[in-house]
């Protein structure tokens, strides 16, 4: 019998629970913004978090990703021992049209 | 001889010195976002800072306005004893098209 890998979505706010102050505060950090910029280039199905290099320790990385997830900027799911992250582009574009493009297109 | 009121612009980053992380961090606070939302409704020539009600003490207000100014979100000038604030809409729209509209249009 083939092994079925368990997939579990980590807790996150529903679209209507997302708040602009929290989204902006989550994105207003160089490390988190770097992660989101890289994630935006990844396939929409998501990417293993560890694949995106960040100039911080593992525990700091975990902390930053939790802030992004709690704010509703990214979703994460556990696939076995991996954590796969997705940018919640559809939710953010629906709530704040133009916001994400304005940020991702920034030259500096 | 008529009195000429002295107008002095307070220090602020030039457009090319504005950084997206600092703009987002400045806006990612409920009090500062409230101020910016109110300022966005004011005439483009600016409004006396004290006219916009904020649920904080005067020293906290000064702190928040300094963060917004240092990030390049607002400009301020001294006119006699008044401080007049303007939203730097033109600069922000040029640097990050869509960002400000996405934020100001947010329902929550």
Which terms would index this structure?
homodimer; globular; 108 residues
- What spatial form of chain A do the alpha-carbon principal axes imply? globular
- Radius of gyration of chain A (CA) equals 14 Å
Largest sheet: spatial strand order of chain A = 1-3-4-2
**Percent of sequence in beta strands of chain A:** 15-25%
> Biggest β-sheet of chain A: count, sense, barrel?
4 strands, antiparallel
Number of helical segments with 4 or more residues of chain A? 5
Description:
The structure is a homodimer of 108-residue chains. The first copy, chain A, contains five helices and four strands; from the N terminus they run E-H-H-E-H-E-E-H-H. Chain A is of the alpha+beta class. In chain A, helix 1 packs antiparallel against helix 3. The termini of chain A are far apart. The interface between A and B is medium-sized, with 28 and 28 residues.
Spell out the blueprint of helices and strands.
The structure is a homodimer of 108-residue chains.
Chain A: E1 7-9, H1 20-27, H2 30-41, E2 47-48, H3 58-71, E3 74-79, E4 82-87, H4 89-95, H5 99-104
Antiparallel strand pairs in A: 1-3, 2-4, 3-4
Helix pairs in contact in A: 1-3
Short description:
Two copies of one chain form a homodimer. Helices cover 44% and strands 16% of the residues of chain A.
